[in-house]
## 1
Amino acid sequence: MKLITSKDNPRLKSIRRLAQDPQAYRKLGWVWLEGDHLCRAALARGFKPELAIFTESIWQASEFEWSQCAHEVWTVPDDLFAGLSALESPAKMGFLLTLPEPPELDPHAATVVLDRLQDAGNVGAILRCASAFGFKQVVAIKGTAGLWSTKVLRAGMGAHFGLQLIESASAENLESLKIPLLGTDVHEGPYLHDLLKQGGLTQKCAWVMGHEGQGVSAEIMALVTQKIRIAQPGGEESLNVATAAAICLHASATSM
């Protein structure tokens, strides 16, 4: 264990950049996890961080539990750790991971496609839904919020570590999928609940979730094999994309 007290330490500077810039992980090749829950989720899935950092105050009570959690362990003064955080209430520990290598696209895996979603909270929430409902592959079309950014990681609540995550994909990549592509549409297609009753749904599919304002692009919608509507008897024009994803993925997961 090392005690680090200088805010100018090169790795601490990198962590501050990771916390503030949602694209920095792509440039630096590192992922910053802040907080007990995310750190435990990574360890539970077999990820071992290069570096674990603890505040002096929490290390005094947690040394026995965490001493072997990473290749290298640092402690820092509490106020120095607060300077690494983008949270209003900074956590007291964090892991620095090597950015995982992107997997090859599995053409047969139950998949969620994210088409240029912008909101990190929506993206993270959909990753949680994908993991919860058995969709193990997420394909993010170029223009989607960075899957390994700190905001998406926090919203995902550890779901990242059980998923195959593919970023910067294109419509051409989707053509290699050997499963049906399903997309929601406000005006066209059968209602989801009717399709579920008729046995027309399966988990072996790829659900396409589109941009918060523009929806699914015309290029990708042209690849969709089935447009589906979600009943909204209350009369709202549309649903939040993360809410729509939860409804659709749950329907597929319970269709067996």
## 2
Amino acid sequence: MFSRMKEDIKSVFDRDPAARTTFEVLTNYPGLHAIWGHAISNWLWQRKLKWLARTVSTLFRWVTGVEIHPGATIGRRFFIDHGMGIVIGETAEIGDDCTVYHGVTLGGTSWKAGKRHPTLGNNVVIGAGAKVLGPLMVGENARIGSNAVVVKDVPSGATAIGIPARIVNNPKDPKHNQRNQMAKKFGFDAYAISNDSQDPVAKAIGRLLDHVNLLDSKLQEVTKAVNNVGGQVCEDVMPPVHVTEFFEDEKAAAERRKSDKNAFDPEI
């Protein structure tokens, strides 16, 4: 039991930069109190003391603002940030290392008995205000955007946003890896960039990444073809582009360019 408590405390420090001391975490994190309260109520529930289990759960709901049914299954290192307004239903199953923010509901869509709440794989993150409804599956490493309403399965590693939620970053999409690789070249994170996104900036960046990737591949093909017929086109790797250079002061930019011999110098 104490080893689980230590894991829970460590998970707070790992995922919340505002956490300063163990004493502060123990006394001021209602999400942590809610998880430990659920451990007690679930222990009672498993031993058929269901009224007592529900009573303990209700007491912790009053104290923390988090409602977790005693029958819910929760994995290790579950982190609830802020906590207020969270509802987790009876047949919900949560994997290890999951993170849930305030206002999240893991609810059901049916009054019938049996499995009616979501199952979360390991390392899932659900943003504030999101609703995940029904006996669906959210795969490992998936991300649910704030205020999304999820009513269908979410693949592992995917990102879902909107009402109803739609997949905007699916690792099974062949363009997903291409965009991530191009984004790394330019020094920024391509998280949630998709042509399906309603954000015009994200959509524009996604199109630009597709365009640059196509240009790179075509240029490599042309270079090889010319050299195969006797040409002498240079096949050197193109110099890296650092988006951050536009936000650096002159001293920092000079130091970065000095450390990167192949970096492109915008002053030339």
## 3
Amino acid sequence: MITPISSPKNPLIKEIALMQSKAKERKRAGMIVIEGKKEISLAVSAGLSFVKILYCPQIIALEEARTLIGAAWERAEIFEVSEAAFSKISYRETTGGVVVLATEPSKQLADLPVNEQSVYIILEAVEKPGNLGAICRVADAAKVDGLIISDPHTDIYNPNAIRSSLGCVFTVDVVQASFEDTYAWLKRNAVRSFAAELQASEFYHETDLSGRIALVFGTEATGLTEKWITGADRRIKIPMGGVIDSLNVTTSVAILTFEAMRRRNFGNND
């Protein structure tokens, strides 16, 4: 059954618009909002549970929307939404005509794979959804074993994080955990931690990055807190040949992560 919605003042449209902007509303509902064909297709591949699907027939045909969603279409409530109503829940014109409400994924540290050459990214107190999304893309491209958000200051599934990740927030094992739980997990699994820190004396390219490792990054504004600087096994930095002393966090994550993967031959054992 497909339920039509024509008014922008429809209660469901109002609820989704509120969830788009308020993390507490998403948490209350236990759901996340996903828009964009690429983002939705990756959520489908990741096996997320879709609860409500809203499509605008003026933007996307019914059969195209059904094909995009696949088998999840049959398990969700479907709504046909007018352009006026859809504009209230769509962030951008390139959304593709579909918005999905899905059950929020829940992953724990114990769910992360651990092997002899595992590489993890740890972000402490990440604040900007755009940075988180961009780093999810790095994590996906490098195919790391997990992205751990330590003491987060933003919602992992903030719509801006989903958009900026192009859906890679669903292709990477992303976990939220406290410093204490993360630190205990690292020690329990014999994962060496490397804090990216401006005052470090050791350059990353001169460091042994073999075995199980976690690369730890702080915020662009304040860097890592003292507990991570002193708690990490090693402190490393990127050589800076110009007048500035640091790079933005996404660039730093990309440089160190791809160096670690290069030394593992990018997962190829040939």
## 4
Amino acid sequence: MTSSIQFYTNPMSRGQIVRWMLEELGQPYETHLLGYDSADGMKSADYLAINPMGKVPAIVHDGHVVTECAAICAYLAESFPEARLAPAPDERADYYRWLFFAAGPVEAAVTNKAAGFIVEPGRERMFGYGTFDRTMDVLEAAVSGRDYVCGAHFTAADVYVGSGIDWGLQFKTMPERPGFLAYAERLRQRPAYRRAKEIDNDLIAQMQAGQG
């Protein structure tokens, strides 16, 4: 029987975020692996009909296409409330605030710096994140002093925010601050995080072996 969630990804991509979210969800899903350059990959006509941006990840659920990692995480949390990955009513402000903060200012600040782009003094107001250091200050404060970004309860926002911090620490695009290190370590203990990493790491190993 075909799964109601179709997952389009490449293990060496942001698809790892959605893989983790799907493992937290506990619902069956079918994985479609796409290459970056192959004729049947991300730039194929079939996939461009799903995501015209020609990038992964994307999901199709009950005929509905969702792209962008933060949107996918939020959509899945609300579509499967039994997983308890959507926030309680009194946590929704923090949930949306930090989910979109990570998708906007944090993503822009980190990728700009990694590309060698530094905001010139006096031009900070032209950019949504102001400066890299200020963005890191705010992000660290958001994940410090409590277990998760919404408080005591893990939500889909932690999948997205946590993935960004986890990768930032791994690839040295974020500073090794105490708040980041403690938060990432808590998330790395989650069974779903470990399952997702094992699946994608195995796929990466298979892909690399095939290229050898």
